[in-house]
Amino acid sequence: xxxxxxxxxxxxxxxxxxxxxxxxxxxxxxxxxxxxxxxxxxxxxxxxxxxxxxxxxxxxxxxxxxxxxxxxxxxxxxxxxxxxxxxxxxxxxxxxxxxxxxxxxxxxxxxxxxxxxxxxxxxxxxxxxxxxxxxxxxxxxxxxxxxxxxxxxxxxxxxxxxxxxxxxxxxxxxxxxxxxxxxxxxxxxxxxxxxxxxxxxxxxxxxxxxxxxxxxxxxxxxxxxxxxxxxxxxxxxxxxxxxxxxxxxxxxxxxxxxxxxxxxxxxxxxxxxxxxxxxxxxxxxxxxxxxxxxxxxxxxxxxxxxxxxxxxxxxxxxxxxxxxxxxxxxxxxxxxxxxxxxxxxx
Length: 346
Prior knowledge:
antiporter activity; UDP-galactose/UDP-glucose transporter 5B; disordered C terminus; 72% helix; 13 helices; transport; antiport; mainly alpha; two-stranded antiparallel ribbon
């Protein structure tokens, strides 16, 4: 009769899982905090003596994706891994289109709402991730998870609808600006939830290497964003802007570098822990980003926004003390294990 595994043999497995979690959290936190500060600087801070604003968000998407695609191709070739697509090409394109729409909505929203407002609104990502998880992955969640999502949404709504008087958009003012900014944020949340969930589905449905997925999705994104720039007539104008403002060029170069590194951390996290777990480890990063942005760019807070922030982060951190989380139905468990319980959200 075979002896049962000893307790000591299970310890390295737990330690390995913990190290992977620390690696994922540290990587995402550091890269995305820098990324957030840079994207706000590029989209909301004027360049040059004439105070010109950079308006070409799709150009940022193109620069980010072409650098990520080049690095992932180099990794695949250097490690002699398979460069052929593992999944049908149209599935990579689905992730690519959704990701482009996500990033474009995110950059465009910064023209109308401040970075702290956008960052806190991202905490509502819980709802689209849960909805897409139910539709695409057939996952089931407890009622308390929906109640938490509702509380987070209420807090985000208060934060967005009651901005401080001094926190104005550099592009336009008034209620129209707020409505358009909120609409773009809703688009961002919906597309982003779909992107991470569909990536999770690809990793679970195919024996897919992280770099393989990154290469094909970013390659599609490069072609789509380049085509969009040509059709909009913005490619030459964007190039002219960065050629006249060298500090903007270096900001975009650094943004693309950080975006590339963060993409590898994001894909690693989604493949190792799942889409919902990726959403849960972002809460502290959001808080750090908001505080850093408020210090760096002098964003004022209204008392209503303080209440909204307390509701959001209080709900999310309270959730981390609850033991139960979302589960899939017994007949619909993914092949590689049960989904990680929801603790926090981005």
